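Reviewer 2 asked us to include a model.

Predict the structure of this chain.
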Amino acid sequence: MIAYFTKQYQAVPALMPLYEALGGEFVTTRPSTRRALRRVYPDVPVTLLRESLGRLSRGDALLRRADAIVTGSPNRALLSRYRAKKYMVFHGTYALLSPADIEAMRHFDHICVIGPRMAELLVASDLQEKLIPSGYLPFLAFPERTPELKRNFLTRTGLDPAAKTLLYLPMGKPHGSWDVMAEKLLRQVPRRYNLILRPHPSQSVTARLKDRLGFLRLQRLCRERGNALLDLTSCKLSTLFAIGDLVIADGASAAEEALYYDLPLLFVEGTWFSPGRRADLSQRFPAEYIEKLFSLSECGMKMPREEKNVSHLIESSLAEADRYRPRRQAYFAWVFGDRDRVRQGKLIDHLRRFSSPQQKRCS
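Predicted model (structure tokens):
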């Protein structure tokens, strides 16, 4: 039996394709993650691991029965208790892996590598014997971009099926721009565009009171504006990419994933791509690697946070999408490799020896 362990909800999209192919059960230590998983994937079994109960916890019992544990974070202290084979499946694109991050992964039996960029760092750390080229697993759930999919989604969510759809997908704190840009975009993006705002899961799934009050205000502004949607993880991110026409981002992961569909990008300027951060990273990573990493910001136009003519930048980003296409394609190849799903299929075949009939009852 395969157990999929995650504390954070944002790891679920990376683990879900494996569950759908192989069955098993999810285990989490956080009630907020269990609630979010049940809301988006109501038929998927998920058990809560209550560490205070020790072996009396149902989650602990499940992990002890498992033949393989697949997870999206190191979790070395917790997972070392269990005999199962352990697989690290990255739940983001992981633009940076520090020596401490890499050291924390040495306890895994296998590390699933999403593409050339990650392999470059891990091979240099003498982990090649543990590496499995897996591709980026969330891509298995990325649907085909079709007019029917877009029309049905936009109609169901109350947006305009005839309009271009903009996705605002910021990072979490401290680098994210949500607190500055979310309301500004709602007020300044013309109504002729659909606007979908999705905060980072670290804000939406485990929201503090300040965040929850802010969401209520933004929901009211969405209703007043029209053609706007505040998505607090009720929609699958893969579906949003498949129906989007432009991604507004402020950092790496969402912008990198959007390259699967070669979506145009518009970057909100901030600390992620700042000269100071670049200088700091250049002290800790090879200069060529940092040069490639920061080339993501050259894959689209840039929007200062104090920008007054938001409409012009959106129009220009859509109109000049083809000019940036070679850069987007080169960056995608460095991070992910090929667009085919061959590597993902080989990982599924590798794990099939541990699979058992899929359980459908939620614990």
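DSSP finds 17 helices and 13 strands in the chain. The two ends are 16 Å apart (CA to CA). We have added this to the supplementary material.
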